[in-house]
Amino acid sequence: MSTFPLTDKKTLGYSIEQVDGFLATAKSAYSAKGDSAQLTAESIRHTAFAMQKGGYSPSHVDAALERLEDAFAARERENAVKDKGRTAITAEASRKTQEIVDRLSRPVGHRFARTSFLTVGYSLADVDRFSNRLVRHFEGGKALTVDDVRTAVFRPQRGGYREAQVDLVLDGVVDLMLAGR
Protein backbone atom coordinates (compact mmCIF):
# COMPACT_ATOMS: atom_id res chain seq x y z
CA MET A 1 0.00 0.00 0.00
CA SER A 2 1.26 3.47 -0.91
CA THR A 3 1.87 6.25 1.60
CA PHE A 4 0.23 8.75 -0.79
CA PRO A 5 -1.98 8.48 -3.86
CA LEU A 6 -0.04 7.76 -7.02
CA THR A 7 -0.22 9.66 -10.29
CA ASP A 8 -1.14 7.62 -13.35
CA LYS A 9 1.66 5.93 -15.29
CA LYS A 10 1.93 8.81 -17.78
CA THR A 11 1.86 11.67 -15.25
CA LEU A 12 4.85 12.92 -13.30
CA GLY A 13 4.78 12.67 -9.53
CA TYR A 14 7.38 12.74 -6.79
CA SER A 15 9.93 9.94 -6.56
CA ILE A 16 8.43 7.28 -4.31
CA GLU A 17 11.84 6.17 -3.06
CA GLN A 18 12.97 9.71 -2.20
CA VAL A 19 9.72 10.64 -0.45
CA ASP A 20 9.65 7.44 1.60
CA GLY A 21 13.32 7.89 2.53
CA PHE A 22 12.75 11.49 3.57
CA LEU A 23 9.70 10.57 5.67
CA ALA A 24 11.70 7.85 7.44
CA THR A 25 14.43 10.38 8.22
CA ALA A 26 11.86 12.92 9.43
CA LYS A 27 10.16 10.37 11.67
CA SER A 28 13.50 9.41 13.19
CA ALA A 29 14.50 13.07 13.70
CA TYR A 30 11.17 13.97 15.29
CA SER A 31 11.24 10.94 17.59
CA ALA A 32 14.75 11.81 18.80
CA LYS A 33 14.91 13.45 22.19
CA GLY A 34 16.39 16.92 22.44
CA ASP A 35 17.49 19.02 19.49
CA SER A 36 17.07 17.44 16.06
CA ALA A 37 19.36 19.91 14.27
CA GLN A 38 19.83 17.63 11.26
CA LEU A 39 16.25 18.37 10.19
CA THR A 40 14.55 21.71 10.79
CA ALA A 41 11.32 23.38 9.75
CA GLU A 42 13.35 25.45 7.29
CA SER A 43 15.07 22.43 5.75
CA ILE A 44 11.69 20.73 5.36
CA ARG A 45 10.37 23.84 3.56
CA HIS A 46 13.25 23.59 1.06
CA THR A 47 12.96 19.85 0.46
CA ALA A 48 12.57 18.84 -3.18
CA PHE A 49 12.12 15.49 -4.85
CA ALA A 50 12.90 14.18 -8.31
CA MET A 51 9.93 13.58 -10.58
CA GLN A 52 8.94 10.20 -11.98
CA LYS A 53 6.00 8.88 -13.94
CA GLY A 54 3.55 7.14 -11.65
CA GLY A 55 5.07 8.79 -8.56
CA TYR A 56 3.39 10.20 -5.49
CA SER A 57 0.80 12.94 -5.98
CA PRO A 58 2.69 16.23 -5.48
CA SER A 59 -0.28 18.01 -3.89
CA HIS A 60 -0.68 15.27 -1.27
CA VAL A 61 3.05 15.14 -0.48
CA ASP A 62 3.29 18.94 -0.33
CA ALA A 63 0.37 19.07 2.13
CA ALA A 64 2.10 16.47 4.32
CA LEU A 65 5.37 18.43 4.18
CA GLU A 66 3.57 21.58 5.33
CA ARG A 67 2.12 19.72 8.33
CA LEU A 68 5.56 18.28 9.07
CA GLU A 69 7.13 21.74 8.85
CA ASP A 70 4.49 23.04 11.27
CA ALA A 71 5.26 20.24 13.75
CA PHE A 72 9.01 20.85 13.60
CA ALA A 73 8.50 24.62 13.94
CA ALA A 74 6.39 24.08 17.07
CA ARG A 75 9.13 21.91 18.58
CA GLU A 76 11.82 24.44 17.66
CA ARG A 77 9.76 27.22 19.26
CA GLU A 78 9.34 25.20 22.47
CA ASN A 79 13.08 24.49 22.61
CA ALA A 80 13.93 28.15 21.98
CA VAL A 81 11.63 29.28 24.79
CA LYS A 82 13.26 26.75 27.14
CA ASP A 83 16.76 27.84 26.15
CA LYS A 84 16.37 31.63 25.86
CA GLY A 85 13.13 32.44 27.64
CA ARG A 86 9.89 33.82 26.26
CA THR A 87 10.97 37.47 26.64
CA ALA A 88 14.12 37.00 24.54
CA ILE A 89 12.21 35.08 21.87
CA THR A 90 9.53 37.77 21.71
CA ALA A 91 12.15 40.52 21.41
CA GLU A 92 13.94 38.64 18.63
CA ALA A 93 10.66 38.11 16.76
CA SER A 94 9.82 41.82 17.11
CA ARG A 95 13.23 42.79 15.71
CA LYS A 96 12.87 40.42 12.75
CA THR A 97 9.32 41.60 12.09
CA GLN A 98 10.49 45.22 12.02
CA GLU A 99 13.30 44.35 9.58
CA ILE A 100 10.78 42.72 7.23
CA VAL A 101 8.28 45.58 7.54
CA ASP A 102 11.03 48.10 6.85
CA ARG A 103 12.04 46.28 3.66
CA LEU A 104 8.47 45.78 2.48
CA SER A 105 7.63 49.43 3.16
CA ARG A 106 10.23 50.72 0.71
CA PRO A 107 8.88 52.63 -2.30
CA VAL A 108 6.98 50.64 -4.91
CA GLY A 109 9.36 49.17 -7.46
CA HIS A 110 12.34 49.47 -5.09
CA ARG A 111 11.66 46.84 -2.43
CA PHE A 112 14.12 44.30 -3.81
CA ALA A 113 17.02 44.20 -6.24
CA ARG A 114 15.94 43.85 -9.84
CA THR A 115 17.09 41.65 -12.67
CA SER A 116 18.41 43.15 -15.89
CA PHE A 117 15.89 43.96 -18.60
CA LEU A 118 17.06 40.77 -20.39
CA THR A 119 16.42 38.52 -17.38
CA VAL A 120 13.11 37.38 -15.96
CA GLY A 121 12.28 37.96 -12.32
CA TYR A 122 9.09 38.29 -10.30
CA SER A 123 6.48 40.81 -11.40
CA LEU A 124 7.01 44.13 -9.62
CA ALA A 125 3.26 44.76 -9.35
CA ASP A 126 2.53 41.28 -7.95
CA VAL A 127 5.30 41.41 -5.37
CA ASP A 128 4.51 45.00 -4.36
CA ARG A 129 0.82 44.15 -3.95
CA PHE A 130 1.65 41.12 -1.78
CA SER A 131 4.21 43.17 0.16
CA ASN A 132 1.48 45.66 1.02
CA ARG A 133 -0.70 42.82 2.30
CA LEU A 134 2.16 41.57 4.47
CA VAL A 135 2.82 45.03 5.93
CA ARG A 136 -0.90 45.38 6.79
CA HIS A 137 -0.78 41.94 8.41
CA PHE A 138 2.23 42.81 10.57
CA GLU A 139 0.80 46.17 11.52
CA GLY A 140 -2.30 44.48 12.92
CA GLY A 141 -4.57 44.81 9.93
CA LYS A 142 -5.87 42.05 7.71
CA ALA A 143 -4.74 38.64 8.86
CA LEU A 144 -2.80 36.38 6.54
CA THR A 145 -2.12 32.70 7.06
CA VAL A 146 1.08 30.76 6.60
CA ASP A 147 -0.57 29.10 3.62
CA ASP A 148 -1.23 32.51 2.05
CA VAL A 149 2.51 33.13 2.14
CA ARG A 150 3.51 29.61 1.14
CA THR A 151 1.25 29.66 -1.90
CA ALA A 152 1.99 33.20 -3.09
CA VAL A 153 2.60 33.18 -6.83
CA PHE A 154 4.14 35.98 -8.86
CA ARG A 155 4.04 36.32 -12.62
CA PRO A 156 7.35 36.49 -14.49
CA GLN A 157 8.55 39.87 -15.72
CA ARG A 158 11.67 40.99 -17.55
CA GLY A 159 13.54 43.34 -15.24
CA GLY A 160 11.47 42.11 -12.30
CA TYR A 161 12.51 41.58 -8.72
CA ARG A 162 15.23 39.03 -8.06
CA GLU A 163 13.48 35.82 -7.11
CA ALA A 164 16.07 34.73 -4.54
CA GLN A 165 15.68 37.95 -2.53
CA VAL A 166 11.88 37.81 -2.55
CA ASP A 167 11.90 34.12 -1.63
CA LEU A 168 14.32 34.75 1.25
CA VAL A 169 12.04 37.41 2.74
CA LEU A 170 8.98 35.18 2.30
CA ASP A 171 10.86 32.38 4.10
CA GLY A 172 11.50 34.82 6.94
CA VAL A 173 7.81 35.69 7.04
CA VAL A 174 6.87 32.01 7.23
CA ASP A 175 9.41 31.49 10.03
CA LEU A 176 7.92 34.40 12.00
CA MET A 177 4.38 33.22 11.46
CA LEU A 178 5.21 29.68 12.54
CA ALA A 179 7.11 30.96 15.58
CA GLY A 180 4.10 33.01 16.60
CA ARG A 181 1.66 30.13 16.62
Structural write-up:
- The chain is mostly helical and 181 residues long.
- The protein folds into 2 domains: 12-83, no CATH class; 85-179, no CATH class.
- The chain has 7 helices and 4 strands, in the order βααβααβααβα.
- It has helices at residues 16-31, 41-45, 58-84, 86-104, 124-138, 146-150, 163-179, and strands at 12-14, 51-53, 120-122, 156-158.
- A two-stranded antiparallel ribbon has the order 1-2. It has a two-stranded antiparallel sheet with strand order 3-4.
- Helix 3 (58-84) packs across helix 4 (86-104), helix 4 packs antiparallel against helix 5 (124-138) and helix 4 runs antiparallel to helix 7.
- The radius of gyration is 19 Å and the shape is flat.
- It starts with 11 loop residues before the first strand and ends with a helix.
- The mean pLDDT is 90.
Strand content: 5-15%
Strand order of the largest sheet: 1-2
Largest sheet: 2 strands, antiparallel
Would you tell me the overall average pLDDT? 90
Q: Quick one: how many beta strands?
A: 4
**Rough shape?**
flat
**Could you name the ranges where pLDDT drops below 50 across 5 or more consecutive residues?**
none
Q: Could you tell me how far the N terminus lies from the C terminus, measured between alpha carbons in angstroms? A: 34 Å
**Helix content range of the residues, please?**
55-70%
Could you state the order of secondary-structure elements as H and E?
EHHEHHEHHEH
The number of helical elements comes to 7
**Number of separate structural domains:** 2
Category from helices, strands and their pairing: mainly alpha
Rg for CA atoms: 19 Å
InterPro entries: CHP03543, DivIVA_domain
Protein name: DivIVA domain-containing protein
